Amino acid sequence: MGPMVLKKVKIWKAFFSNSLTRDMEYKSNLIGSIFVDIIYYGIHYLFFSIIYSYVDALGVFTKEDVIIFLIITFLSDSVYMFLFSSNLHGLNGLIVRGDLDFMLLKPINAQFLISLRYVRSYAILSIIILIFLLIKLTNDFYGGILFFNWILFIISFISGITIWYTLDFSISCMTFWFRQFSMGGWLSNELLKFSRRPDSIYGGIIRKVLFTAVPMILISSIPARMLIYSPNLKIFFIQIFITILFFILTPILWRNGLIKYESASS
Amino acid sequence: MIINVKNIFKSFRAFHRKAGLKGAITSFFKREYKNFDVLKDINLRVNEGEIIGILGENGAGKTTLIKLMVGLLHPTSGSIDIGGYTPWKRNHKFLKDISIVMGQKNQLWWDIPASESFLLNQKLYDIDEKIYKDKLAELSELFDVKDKLDIQVRRLSLGERMKMEIIAALLHNPKIIFLDEPTIGLDVVAQSKVRDFIKYYNDQYNTTFLLTSHYMHDIQSLCKRVFIIHKGENLFDGDFSNLVKAIKPQKKLLFTFNDLPSSEILEKLNNDFSFKISNKLLSTNLPDEELNNLLSQLFKLDTPISFSIEDLPVEDTMKEFFTDPKKFI
Amino acid sequence: MKNYVIKYTYIIKMAWIHALEYKANLYVGLFAIFSGLLIEYLIWKQIFIVQDVEYIRGFSFRGLMAFIFLSMIVGQLKSSWVTSIEMIDEIRTGELNKYLIRPISFFSYNLMMFIGMNSIYYLGYSVLLCFFPFFFPGLILVSILNIIGFILALIVSIYLSYSIYFIMVCFTFWLHEVRALVIAFNISNLILSGQIIPLKMFPASIVSIIHFTPLPFLVDFPVGIATNQYSIDVWAEKFLFAICWCLLMTIIGKIIYRLGIKQYGAYGA
């Protein structure tokens, strides 16, 4: 197990090196991406500013809580973009054109290769800035956060990213069955909308669904709660359990998808 | 590593609809699917160190067979055993022993130098540092691309890109190499280099090569044995030169008269043999036997200034073959 | 003129046939609208409950939901950012050549393709809109005049949105990475055109800035007509402004395209 993990780390480092080399060729991409990030963060902030001009809180989330929630959302966006989004959103194209071939022929777990092959190296800048902002603002708003909360937050955050990955991956794999599922990226984004609002707006059956079957609440809201509210170990462990369950299903889906793969003509 | 393909069947399902708006609207609500049998009962055994050509017209099933052998596809029925491995189970040890070069697809990243992609392959295939360096030096020397390794792949010519693709495919010393139209789009010099390289590599390392190509020069110069697929079925498996002989290829005769016979005589001869005359030059393409008959008749008429008999390019022979393969086998 | 109409009508038809291959697009589009509406419903329900009022900025809760629902539909119908990305790639990779060597306009061809590809949504959402008067009686499309006004304003919105994106696309002739600009505009106009929150709900300072741009005519204007936010005497003035923006964007687009085509190197294809 240890040597296998070490090998994968080494390979990921090679992915990162490849991707960084490529990204350095196109400096304008870096500027473009920073520009888009600024607009994206600004627009989301504007949205909540307008909402909070009518209320002081959405459920338990005050304006300060929502700002922290937003930063965590942006941070999970940046980490996800860094690791996965370039890969999974291209999976439909790879399957349809038969370009998956070379990836399947490498002596490495194909799901690992397909999920992590391209690293969006310039997302690191956003990640660093957002981590800095998160630490600063939590200090400013709450006078500091307990170390235990930080630990729960980090684990919960990683768990949230993993959930996002499993959902995105599952949707991308639909191309194996539908032959062409270019709408997968759009569908993922629409589902993700549910994670970009604080979970306190969801109630009843909707909340149950967004906590379990389509666990979008677990991506940003729960990590935010772990950080800024008193530790809720019940929710924490439910999140971990659901993450592991979803993650285990992905290789099963992948293997079944490969049986359907037709490797488009030469 | 021996390749054993037994009773392989492969079919695909595709939806079809009539052209036009009506067809599009109908298919929006109800789709009709058709099954296409791409491979029917294919059997093939390849021994270690062979170079075998897989031939067939477009859509015959050549690439599908290759993809089954490397494990990209699952067969509808039948089995394939390569060195004890079932390809579609994608055992990592099996994947380290094989490689594929596809003339119409690239594995190298466009925007970075080939050397970067090679480094990644080194990690993926667990190639020892010294072995990797030696192998890269050997291959880049053979292909004369040492000075191109650090140039972005997209800035290389097609021939250079193909050389880099082949290097990437060979760095890990595979025992079996599948080449799917490796010389497509290359100029004659580059094609020749690739062919020479394959011969050298096979001699040196006893690597098995399975090659598909529409260029008969590739097949003729590399493959003693060919496996022909026609409409998904195995049509021929054997010696390429025997196949060519079986087709009874034509030869080209050029006969320059010293003294042109009268037009009546030539017309009478033309009734028995097809030929063209321009000035004093007679030219024709005929099978061996007919050609010998014609030649003996011509010698009775005149002593030529010159004459020559050439084999037609094997392309022309195979073109005739593929027009109606069952006529010859 | 007749040939022009025949040529570009045929392009719409071809795009329509192509679009019908992808019925999943319609389902995802519908999901996008309903999921977006659900989220807005939940947020505004809380706001109305907390504030304990019947109207906020002139909107009842049902009226607000009707507005947002229709805004999301209009927002989807007018958004040509995917077409724009494809156009950017065509300029970058040299695929523009295929327009330059044929008697077709890059602008018109892609506009017709965009309309044709969206045909599946026009059909689907038209069916949906037929049910609106039952879900939101008295709030949406209350008269034939509203329906006609809405359709006309929607046509203007589609054209205006496309021509704005076209201007950005033309910058590809000079800058390599214009995609970021298109994406940034797409993200920002989601909010600033009133697609998610009606412009009436915005702070006055922000609204006054937005009114100097063509953004209000992309979503707020057609939806405002459909939901009777604007009286008929205001329509003429607003339509005039909208058409002026269309003309301005078209002229700017043409100028930038002509300047850009001189730069074009026809690399790649």
Rough shape of chain A?
A: globular
The major sheet of chain B is characterized as: 6 strands, mixed
Distance between the termini of chain A: 38 Å
- What order do the strands of the largest sheet of chain A run in, or round the barrel if closed? 1-2
How many separate domains make up the residues of chain A?
1
Radius of gyration of chain B using CA atoms only: 25 Å
Average of the residue pLDDT scores of chain A: 90
CATH superfamily name of the largest domain in chain B? P-loop containing nucleotide triphosphate hydrolases
CATH architectural grouping of the largest domain in chain B: 3-Layer(aba) Sandwich
**Topology of chain B as a string of helices (H) and strands (E):** EHEEHEHEHHHEHEHEEHEHEEHEH
Q: Might you state the CATH topology name of the largest domain in chain B?
A: Rossmann fold
Helix content of chain A: over 70%
Number of structural units classed as domains of chain B? 2
The CA-CA distance between the termini of chain B, in Å, is 30 Å
Main interface: chain pair and counts = A-C, 39 and 37 residues
Summarize the structure.
The complex is a heterotrimer of chains A (266), B (329) and C (269). Chain B is of the alpha/beta class. Chain B is built from twelve helices and 13 strands.
Would you give an account of this structure?
- Chain A has 266 residues and is an all-alpha fold.
- Chain A has one domain.
- Chain A contains 13 helices and two strands.
- The longest helix of chain A is centred in the C-terminal third of the chain and has 28 residues.
- The radius of gyration of chain A is 19 Å and the shape is globular.
- In chain B, the strands form three sheets. Chain B has a six-stranded mixed sheet, with helices on both faces.
- Chain B folds into two domains: 243 residues, 3-Layer(aba) Sandwich (Rossmann fold); 62 residues, YebC, transcriptional regulation domain (Alpha-Beta Plaits), CATH 3.30.70.980.
- Chain C is mainly α.
- Chain C has one domain.
- Chain C has twelve helices and two strands, in the order H-H-E-E-H-H-H-H-H-H-H-H-H-H.
- In chain C, helix 2 packs antiparallel against helix 3, helix 3 packs across helix 11 and helix 8 packs antiparallel against helix 11.
- Chain C is globular, with a radius of gyration of 20 Å.
- The two termini of chain C are 32 Å apart.
- Chains in contact: A-B, A-C, B-C.
- The interface between A and C is large, with 39 and 37 residues.
